[in-house]
Amino acid sequence: MRIRSRFALAAIITGLVFLVFFAGLCIPAIMAGRSNLRNLLLIQPEGRAASRGINTAAIEDFTADEFLISYSINSSQRFVLPHAEFPVTVTATTSAYAQMLGLPLVNGSFFGAQAWKGKLRHAVLNETAAVNIFGNTAVSGSRFRMLNESWIVTGVINDGDEDRGRVYIPSSVQGADAVSLIALMDKSIDEAYIKSRLKTLGILEGDYTFYNFRTIIGLLRDRIIVLVLFLAGLLLLSILASLWKKIIASFNEFLLQKEHRYIREIAKAKPGFIIKPSVYALLFLSAIAAALFLFLRAVSIMLPWQNILFLNSLNWDLFYPYIENLRNLEFASRILFILDTATLAVFIAVLNIYLFGRKTKKTD
pLDDT tens-digit profile of 204-239? Predict the structure, then answer.
């Protein structure tokens, strides 16, 4: 084998290792995100609906009668203590916010429904705010000033934000309207039911876009599946050329034997002359059928990908940390897809060199 062929073979193996390496990096993250993600439906206003807002008291009444809905109304404020002030991100929301997003408590408790109804100035800090401001997370019962009012800390949660302090308060105290919502789905409350019931709040499909988080994660996972299907299909197609050569060679051998013997005699004396071309032909047709199936399956998976292209338009700070996590996973899957597609292109090129680039020795 010539040096060029050996190099091409080494490049093929390197390309496969490269492909598996990047897939191995992203698959655990995407699958972990999918398993930890709650069955939430994001309701995002479009056009004129974005400027209307939804009354938070109406949402609270709706939640009491129907199913869990939450929202986040973010603003930048200053957390005031006797000795210092600290900039924080304030999220005005409902008492079900931490429960719906699955944010674990580190200390104390999240403010309750009674605090929301009574417009009590109860606040929940994230770990970053608690440690940066008080020096530790055991701060339940501590008091501070914000928005020119005195507040009491009821608990500390882990929301995953290690860079910024966050404070969660009852939206009833702030009084602003909600814009984007999240709804919690289960076996009895699916996306269709939620869309139907939200009409009582004036939320219509034409004015709002609905994002099913689990569906989006599934689409991100499907990008990896498509890569595997394409790789398998290309591998099958790459061996067709060598199979075709073997079919032609074995068939010519059979025809040569047939010139001197009957088929019955060939079958008894040398059955391989009949079996080999039959087996090669069967493998050839099977490889074509399998490759077509894999490519068609890959295309069918790719069709709904347009449903994840709108993630870039979402505010990453909305419903932290879920929107940010989804955006990060979408970015990782896109980079993986680009890198692995490039790897597949190189793989095809070097495989072509390996199969067809060898020169036959000239005979005298």
Answer: 988 998 988 877 777 777 766 776 666 666 666 666
DSSP per-residue letters across 43-107: EEE-TTHHHH-B-HHHHHHHHHHS--EEE-EEEEEEEEETTEEEEEEEEEE-TTHHHHHTPPEEE
Terminal CA-to-CA distance of the chain, rounded, Å? 20
Could you tell me if 152 and 100 lie in one domain? yes
| DSSP letter (8 states) at residue 202 | T
- Is this structure's pTM higher than 0.85? no
Q: Is residue 49 part of a domain?
A: no
Q: 83 with 162, same domain? A: yes
For the chain (364 residues), the mean pLDDT of every run of 10, in chain order, is 54 58 55 59 85 90 91 92 89 93 93 94 96 94 92 94 93 90 90 94 90 78 69 66 67 65 58 65 75 70 56 71 75 70 69 58 45
Domain boundary residue, one of 178, 193, 226: 178
E strand or H helix that includes residue 143: strand 143-146
Candidates 52, 66, 39; CA nearest to 194 is 66
